[in-house]
Structure formats: C-alpha cells, structure tokens
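Journal club prep — side note

Before the paper discussion, L.F. wants everyone to see what a predicted structure for a comparable chain looks like in token form. Sequence:
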Amino acid sequence: MKTLILLTHPNLKESKINKTLTQSIQNTPNITLHDLYATYSDGKINASKEIELLKTHDKIVFEFPLFWFSSPSLLKEYEDVVFSGVLYGSEPKMLQGKIFQIITSAGSPEEKYRSDGRNQKNLEEILLPFQMSASYLGMQTNPIFCVYNAMNITDASLAEAKEAYKKLLLS
C-alpha cells in the first residue's frame, strides 16, 4: 500500500510532535511525505500536480497540529482547490475506495476533548468536516490518530506516540 502524508505544519522546525513523528518515517518505502508549507510557501496550490500525487497512492493522510479546532489554513485551501478539482474534474471517482486518515496533535490532554471536558466535543466531532469530505469523495475513513497533551508531553509519551505512529503507517 502506498501512503501519501500531506503534512501541514506552518512551523515544522519548531514542532516537537510532528517533527518527531515525521522524522521517524523518512525514507520509508511506500510512504511519501509531502510538506505542503514547504511546497507552497506562497499558498498557491497546484491542483493538477496534487491530483497526480493522489492518483498514485492508496492511503491519503492529513497530518497537522490542531489549530482553533481545525487545521492550519493551508490544508483547508488544499481541500478547496484539490478536492474540488477532483470532484469537478474528468475523474470525479478517482479517490473512491482509497483510505483516508487524520493524524493530528492537540495541545491539551485527551480529557479536555469530551462532552464534559473544557472543549465540549471529541475530535471526531471537531474534525467531522474533513471526514465528511473524504467520505463524499468515496474514501474509506479510518479513526483519527491524535497525540494529546502536546504542550506538556513527556519524552516517554512522545516515544510511545512515535512508535504508535510508525505502526499505524506501516500496517
């Protein structure tokens, strides 16, 4: 299975979580790590180039830090430009049957993401628009993978998260 990770982090150099996770899988066969901020520093996404990348992969991963209960803005732009290009292009069913996965990090502990927690919603509810978009295009959605407590993560917890991340991507 060929996996495309669409990494969307506006400051990867300063990232503790996403930088650690992605470094753990660099140069892994059948995994393409595509840093959208590095590729599109001007914010102008090349839909045809991105659609060609989507065609050649079986699993599509959106990886990003949670920003204001969503993703960094470039991922939304990607969705608007590329997913619309797929839906209204010559092959609107090209993503049908592919697997879609969200990998994210959240600054707060997991208990904050519950109906009785500070944020009043779980991640499945918060990130539902991404899952719905993928489903609308015919992709099979996998459960969200999240590294919680990014603001205060311990080295041991980060090491566990890195191993779980690698296992998820290599399975």
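L.F.'s comment for the group: The chain has seven helices and six strands. Keep this in mind when we get to the figures.
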